[in-house]
Amino acid sequence: MQANVMRPVVWILALSLLSGCATFSEQFSAVERQLLQGKPEQALSTLEKAPGADRDRVLYLLNRSMLLRMTDQFEASNESLEQAKEIMKKLAATSVSETTGSLTINDATRSYVGEPFEQVMVHLIKALNYLEMGQRDSARVEVLQMDVRLRELYQKERSAYMEDPFGRYLAGMIYEELGEYSDAMVSYRKSFEAYERQLKDFGVAAPQGLKLALVRMSQRMGLNNEHKDYKQGFNIQQFQSVAQRRREGRLVFILGNGLAPKKLERTLSLRDYRYNQLHRVALPYYSKRSQRQLLGGLRLEAAGEAVEADLAEDINAIARQTLEEQMPGIKTRALARAVAKSAMVSSSRRNNDDNPWVGLIVNIATVATERADTRSWVTLPSEFYIADLGLDPGRYDINVQFIGRHGGAVDAMVLKDVEITAGRNNYHFYHWVSPASRKRN
After folding, report:
1. How far apart are CA 180 and CA 174, in angstroms?
2. Residue 112: CB partners within 8 Å, gap ≥ 6?
3. Closest CA to 428 of 410, 416, 437
4. CA 398 from centroid of its chain's CA atoms
5. Distance in angstroms (rounded) separating the CA atoms of residues 395 and 372
6. Are 361 and 394 in contact (CB under 8 A)?
7. Residue 236 — φ and ψ, nearest 5°?
8. Residue ranges of the chain with per-residue pLDDT less than 70
9. How many C-beta atoms surround the C-beta of residue 287 within 10 A?
10. What's the confidence (pLDDT) of residue 107?
């Protein structure tokens, strides 16, 4: 009888330890708080002291990579992203044991492989790191790998996010700077088509710089009808040709705005008085971030020239749409777990009818293990903005004005002694997290 008592208790306690008591968002709160306070070095230290379980290794590496680049450690950031990429490949095929765990314990028992858009962001962030280090050929390799991943998504996924227009736009800029005009034209086309297709779901229109790129590149490629259609469709009368554009240099400023939305859990607990059982269902949802933690854009000024940034990608909208598309499957697994856990409690009571405490302990443990999977790449920006400022070759102090949600400038900084070279793009990727983080810089 003692063995019958202990076996289910030990088993269910083991499941409790495996699933953990706190959700990811609860565990990550200290790191996030330090970021919002403008302390990325401290946030990085906090994260590295608690790397988490093996199943969360990818997530740890992704968040670590962003904290490293926030502290200007671009090479280390890319090393972390590359490690995450390799683990993602190995975990691409979900194992039977992990699927079973998600149906009997909770979804967070599965190894984290990243959402489709997060997997694409690995390549995009790596490319931006390379560009900021001046390694254009390495950035080119990364956008080629991004192209492979996007093709896979297009073939496998049936989702609003099957393409990344900002990634395609950036790829086009890299190809154009390297003189690979045919590839640049293809990337610009794909970018514009994706912006048009995703406008309803994500609310981001094609940036003006992309429209100018299509006009410019279609002329360079001798695509006369396409060139005419772009000029008329975009109402562009004046533009720089490729040759004119290469006589000057450009500052390409990319703003990473805020932090990606955070997943929390919403629970429903019920008591079945007929069988004296507790039942719990936990589902993830995205919380809203404070408007104080988001800008409305930026403005660049130098040598009498000025340009305002365009919104290029809304990670917030993509993440929310992705979760909405996944919710039917999440709910199905949650209900299946509720049924399985109820049967587990009933079985423990039948096998230990002389000891009612066993059934109670098992019931409490099954409720405790029901947690929503709130894991996500929180340190990604909520949005990406892009500004493209053309200047004659030389050295400049670039004035950067940060624009609030209501249109007024809320702060400014100066990029000192920036070198502009003819025919080259000078890339800067700045991640603004909160008013506190802005003051830090």
Report:
1. 9
2. 55, 56, 57, 58, 59, 375
3. 416
4. 28
5. 52
6. no
7. -105, 120
8. 1-23, 93-106, 271-276, 291-292, 342-351, 353-368, 437-441
9. 10
10. 77
Query: What CA–CA distance (Å, rounded) separates 195 from 189?
Result: 10
What SS3 class is residue 325?
helix
Tell me how far apart the alpha carbons of residues 331 and 321 are, in angstroms, rounded to a whole number.
16
Kindly tell me the burial class for residue 93, based on how many C-beta atoms sit within 10 Å of its own C-beta (0-12, 13-18, 19 or more).
Answer: exposed
Q: Are strands 263-272 and 383-391 parallel, antiparallel or unpaired?
A: unpaired
Q: Evaluate the CA torsion angle 401, 76, 63, 327 in order and state its sign.
A: positive
Model pLDDT, residue 405: 85
Under 8 Å CB-to-CB from 288, ≥6 apart: which residues? 261
Instruction: Report residue 55 CA to chain centroid gap.
Output: 19
Residues forming a β-bridge with 426: 251
Q: How far apart are the first and last CA of the chain?
A: 67
> Which tokens belong to 366?
């099954």
Helices (H) and strands (E) counted in the chain, each on its own, are 17, 10
Q: Closest Cα partner for 253 from 168, 135, 173?
A: 173
Q: Which amino acid is at 267?
A: T
Question: Which stretches within 20-135 are classed as H helix?
Answer: 24-27, 29-36, 40-49, 57-70, 74-90, 96-104, 116-132
Contact criterion met (CB below 8 Å) for 441 and 412 = no
Q: Which pLDDT value is given to residue 51? A: 85
Q: Which of 127, 24, 28, 115 is nearest to 69 (CA)?
A: 127
Contact 291, 426 (CB under 8 A): no
Structure-token pair, residue 232: 């008329």
| Helix (H/G/I), strand (E/B), else coil: 351 | helix
Contact 188, 168 (CB under 8 A): yes
Q: CA separation (Å) from 388 to 33, 159, 346, 427? A: 32, 31, 65, 9
Q: Do 60 and 299 touch, CB atoms closer than 8 A? A: no
Residue 163: the pLDDT is 95
Asked if 312 and 169 count as a contact pair (C-beta separation under 8 A), the reply is yes
Q: How far is CA 183 from CA 44, 168, 241, in A?
A: 38, 11, 17
**How far apart are the C-alpha atoms of 347 and 352, rounded to whole Å?**
9
Per-residue model confidence (pLDDT) at position 272: 63
Q: Which helix (H) or strand (E) holds 96?
A: helix 96-104
